[in-house]
């Protein structure tokens, strides 16, 4: 039985999980760092406990402190969300050792999928296709280089070197031709040692022009393992997804069944329990290859929820409590698209931005869902990830979903902090997105010299008039309080107050 | 009423006239709604705009676009906010090489800051004397903060 869930996360996903707990009639505990004390998620829990410490390492990543809070406040389950401790096998094990239910797969499953070479070997053994390449079993640099050089003639160019403990592009190198190979191996190894304390590197053929297609799976403790169809997440910038949809525009029922079965086999190979995602590269030939398995709930889970009608987080809670999953025969219905709203400057290499959310008015209407952890008046700080919200739309067909997304993005008003809203809006008009012809290099291919917004002089003139009238009438102002006596760095956002005419 | 703004590096003068509930600028016409939005006619089509002022900048949302329009005082020299004298992004001051009252020449290195794990060198954009400099090593700065002011 589970009665009190501690959510070891913050922001948007903490809100998502805490609301699911509330709907399921469970008590919940939010934990928060001091700089999050006014964040929305803190309000959504039955009990909220402040973490001691300043840095992320001292707060959201402090396993001992989190376990102590769980014990003191009677948590009998911990949901890790995504990021932070969600894929840390040692934490999952510590939670279980403390007699608390871990809402996720076993520590062994996390470990086997977390080490990429082990995952490749496990998948090959289970009959799941992997990207052509070779595992390299040497830790010694000289032997590793020798083995990779030999393997490179079999794998072919261009190729990718990947750190076995890698993630987020760290310890990864593209190699276009043999001249750069040795230098690149050394670089990848050095980076992997620095980032993960593990210098093991392996080799894969680089599959250009592929789509990123992933399969959502659910597995319960009653022996049922199902897939919930695919999500396509090809549109990425700096290895991060910005536009996700389900179904994949090029999917066929036959291919979905093949990929779905491969994902189910992957999950069964590690005795998976809970919600997970098996990521594949889908080549233009229709061949697909295992990329990795994410052993947690994913950022883009809402698109699957919209097309299948399954509440994935509620299912996680059910499965963790030892109940069978509640969903019966599945059917995918209509089309869902998610875009990620980031506080970032799309005109300047997507650099994170900060500021007050002086106005934050999300769109409303049929088929629109907003998952967010912020509200009007909040400050966007450099302390955490710059993702502000996920805007998800559902419509009966893909063209209608795109139309709805365009309308929703036009209606979404965020002032005071630079966001990628306009970039997302123009993305929805791009011919490759309209035709569904997206691949993982799309953003670099379409905007090699960066993106800048397109607007008419009429619109600009009208905006200047709005500024002129607003200034004349003394409209909505977010006051800045800067005292010259203050020796510290001047922040224009020290206090917020509002004035209407 | 006449206002001076800066948009995308260009100074723009905007003169709006009021006629009871309606405001005019050339052919453009708008009115202020009770909730603080502005209704503006563009080529005969009514659009609703949101505006909010943060510091000196008017953020305007209109027709799916956001414009950042800075209010400047007519005739004022706001060049101090140009050419890398403001923090290009949130970050930390690594090194301070000048102090208040010191003479500097255009191109002199004033500060080194770290932002997004990259080092940024802040150099003088004019010849002059440091008029304002109250940062020290390790200080956190926000995007757009004025780092150094130089009087010519």
Précis, in short:
The complex is a heterodimer of chains A (501) and B (152). By secondary structure, chain A is α+β, with helices and mostly antiparallel strands.
What does this molecule look like?
The complex is a heterodimer of chains A (501) and B (152). In chain A, strands 14-13-10-11-12-15-22-20 form an eight-stranded antiparallel β-sheet, sandwiched between helices. Chain A has a five-stranded parallel β-sheet with strand order 3-2-1-4-5, with helices on both faces. Chain A has helices at 11-23, 40-43, 63-72, 89-97, 107-114, 116-126, 141-155, 181-196, 253-269, 301-308, 312-320, 398-411, 421-427, 431-435, 442-446, 457-473, and strands at residues 4-7, 27-32, 47-50, 77-79, 101-102, 133-134, 159-163, 173-175, 201-205, 211-219, 225-237, 240-246, 274-282, 288-294, 335-342, 344-345, 351-352, 355-356, 359-361, 368-372, 379-380, 387-395, 413-415, 477-478. Chain A contains 16 helices and 24 strands. Among the domains of chain A are: 4-103, Rossmann fold, CATH 3.40.50.20; 132-205, ATP-grasp fold, A domain (Dna Ligase, domain 1, 2-Layer Sandwich), CATH 3.30.1490; 466-501, no CATH class. Chain B has 152 residues and is mostly beta strands. Chain B has two domains: 2-72, Glycoprotein, Type 4 Pilin, CATH 3.30.700.30; 79-151, Beta Barrel (OB fold (Dihydrolipoamide Acetyltransferase, E2P)), CATH 2.40.50. Chain B is 0% helix and 55% strand. Chain B is built from no helices and 16 strands. A nine-stranded antiparallel β-sheet of chain B has the order 2-1-9-8-7-6-5-4-3, with no helix packed on it. In chain B, strand 7 and strand 8 (57-62) form a beta hairpin. Chain B is elongated, with a radius of gyration of 20 Å. Classes of the chains: A alpha+beta (501), B mainly beta (152). At the A-B interface, strand 17, strand 18, strand 23, helix 13 and helix 16 of A face strand 1, strand 2, strand 5, strand 6 and strand 7 of B. Strand 24 of chain A pairs parallel with strand 7 (45-54) of chain B.
């Amino acid at each position: 039985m589970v009665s009190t869930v501690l959510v070891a996360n913050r922001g948007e996903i903490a809100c998502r999980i805490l609301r699911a707990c509330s709907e399921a009639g469970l008590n919940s505990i939010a934990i928060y760092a001091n700089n999050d004390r006014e964040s929305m998620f803190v309000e959504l829990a039955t009990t909220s406990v402040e973490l001691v410490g300043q840095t992320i390492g001292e707060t959201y990543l402090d396993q001992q402190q989190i376990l102590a809070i769980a014990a003191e406040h009677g948590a009998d389950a911990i949901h890790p969300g995504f990021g932070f401790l969600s894929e840390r096998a040692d934490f999952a094990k510590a939670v279980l050792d403390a007699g608390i239910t871990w809402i996720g797969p076993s520590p062994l499953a996390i470990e086997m999928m977390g080490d990429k070479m082990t995952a490749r070997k496990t998948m090959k053994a289970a009959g799941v296709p992997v990207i052509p390449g070779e595992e390299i079993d040497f830790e010694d640099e000289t032997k590793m280089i020798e083995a990779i050089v030999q393997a490179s003639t079999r794998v072919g160019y261009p190729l990718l070197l990947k750190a076995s403990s890698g993630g987020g592009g760290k310890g990864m190198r593209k190699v276009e031709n043999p001249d750069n190979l040795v230098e690149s191996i050394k670089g990848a190894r050095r980076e992997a040692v620095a980032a993960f304390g593990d210098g093991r590197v392996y080799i894969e053929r680089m599959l250009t022009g592929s789509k990123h297609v992933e399969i959502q799976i659910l597995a319960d403790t009653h022996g049922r393992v199902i897939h919930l169809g695919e999500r396509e997440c090809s549109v990425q910038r700096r290895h991060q997804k910005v536009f996700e949809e389900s179904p994949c525009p090029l999917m066929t029922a036959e291919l979905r069944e093949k990929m779905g079965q491969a994902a189910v086999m992957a999950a069964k190979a590690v005795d998976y329990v809970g919600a997970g995602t098996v990521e594949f590269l889908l080549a233009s030939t229709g061949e697909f290859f295992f990329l990795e398995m994410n052993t947690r709930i994913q950022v883009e889970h809402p698109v699957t929820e919209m097309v299948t009608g399954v509440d994935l987080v509620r299912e996680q809670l059910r499965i963790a409590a030892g109940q069978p999953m509640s969903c019966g025969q599945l059917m995918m219905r209509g089309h869902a698209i998610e875009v990620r709203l980031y506080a970032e400057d799309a005109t300047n290499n997507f650099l994170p931005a900060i500021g007050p959310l002086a106005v934050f008015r999300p769109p409303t209407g049929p088929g629109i869902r907003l998952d967010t952890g912020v509200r009007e008046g909040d400050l966007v700080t450099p302390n955490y990830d710059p993702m502000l919200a996920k805007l998800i739309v559902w419509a009966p067909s893909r063209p209608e979903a795109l139309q709805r997304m365009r309308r929703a993005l036009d209606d979404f008003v965020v002032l005071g902090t630079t966001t990628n809203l306009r970039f997302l809006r123009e993305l929805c008009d791009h011919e490759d997105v309209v035709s569904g012809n997206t691949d993982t290099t799309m953003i670099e291919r379409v905007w090699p010299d960066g993106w800048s917004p397109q607007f008419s002089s009429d619109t600009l003139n009208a905006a200047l008039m709005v500024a002129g009238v607003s200034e004349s009438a003394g409209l909505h102002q977010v006051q800045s309080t800067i005292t010259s006596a203050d020796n510290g760095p001047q922040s224009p956002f020290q206090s917020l107050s509002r004035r209407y005419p | 009423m006449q206002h001076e703004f800066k948009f995308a590096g260009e100074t723009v003068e905007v003169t709006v006239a009021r006629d009871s509930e309606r405001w005019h600028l050339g052919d453009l016409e708008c009115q202020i709604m009770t909730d603080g939005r502005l209704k503006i006619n563009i080529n005969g089509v009514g659009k609703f705009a949101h505006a909010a002022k943060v510091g000196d900048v008017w953020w305007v949302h209109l027709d799916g676009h956001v414009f950042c329009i800075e209010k400047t005082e007519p005739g004022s020299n706001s060049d101090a906010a140009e050419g890398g004298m403001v923090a290009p992004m949130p970050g930390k001051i690594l090194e301070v090489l000048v102090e208040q009252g010191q003479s500097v020449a255009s191109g002199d290195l004033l500060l080194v800051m770290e932002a997004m794990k990259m080092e940024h060198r802040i150099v003088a954009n004019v010849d002059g004397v440091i008029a304002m400099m109250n940062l020290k090593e390790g200080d956190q700065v926000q995007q757009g903060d004025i780092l150094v002011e130089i009087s010519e």
